[in-house]
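subagent[fold] <- orchestrator: predict structure for attached chain, return tokens only, no commentary.
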Amino acid sequence: MALICRRNRKSKACFEWLGEYFREQNAEQTKKSVIAIIDAYTNGVFGEDADGICNSYITKWIQDLAKKDNFDEEQKKYWKEFFNVKGAKVTYSSQNYNILKEISVDFNRIDNFVSRITAFNNEGGIKDQLSAKFTADIDTEKLKRGIDEQLERLVTNYEEGEEAEMRDEETFFNLVKEFKGDEDLAREELDLIQEKRLDPPVDFVSRLRSAVADDTEQPEVQKTAVTLLKQYIIDSYKEYITEYKDSYPQTITLSIKDQIQGAKPKRPTQAIKWSNTTNDGENVEQMKKEVEKAYSTAKDNAIAAAKPSTAKYVFVGIFTLGIGALLLKSNFKKESQNIEMEYSRRTKNAVNKLNAAVLARQETNKIVSEFCAQEGWDELKLEECV
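subagent[fold] -> orchestrator:
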């Protein structure tokens, strides 16, 4: 009936049929075909619903489902996970950021918030993905052809008993002819056709959510689904983006730990431990001096440990007439030079790490401050994406 009315532009009769069709639907047992019809309805394929007949049924379905226990919590959980999955495609990373991760115990608290800002705001992030889904041009003629096919399929799928058996038998014979008499191939193909025809019912909201999450779904279907679920998506986004804001650290601890083996097997290992706090790297010069001093102290200890004892000089002087003592002095000089070189290299690496971590901290502070300075930063404005 709807197919005939639509093709003959009988809008009033068409909406009367659609109203009856929607009235018979169960919000907890919705088939995919219903979404296709709603999509065509919201995109004006059936004309203008002046009395809002269909819209009232759609609204009622969502309201009925919302009365279920834990419904709101379930929606927030679903959409939060949706944001997590989509956001995982875009992560904030840099060489400096990796070093900050290495030397700051507060990195996870930084990354929790920064990664969500990046996931939403950066190129290819959630905002771009939503925009790509909902700004695509809709081919109205293609949509009309699709809904005609859907309505015809709807009639076919309502056939039961002998009518359905007769249709399948006719299809089977046509397939046998197509496969040149091979009944086994024809039966396999018929099984596939029947499987595709199956449309197991799920609740209306779950059906809409699947349409949004499925990247292969038609853009007009996704746009319809997000329009109907708009408020749940917006509410979930607010929780998603604000969850880690308060735990973003105002001050972070930077720590450098190093161990330098002695120049020779029996020399003691020197352990360097340094840490300090900073907000935005305002004390970076002071921290660099502290790191350099920590390595300098360890270097002095390593040189002192390498210096021959007085007893060795006495022993060598007695038995080798001073030649051995000169050799000890020469070896000590060479070992001291090697220690100087190694500790100079290690000090430079440590200071470079400190500089990189401070730069990363400044970068993340800038990302956070600029994002939170935007009006309505914690609100998802779907109208900007759709």
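orchestrator: received. Logging for downstream: The chain is about 70% helix and 5% strand. The radius of gyration is 36 Å.
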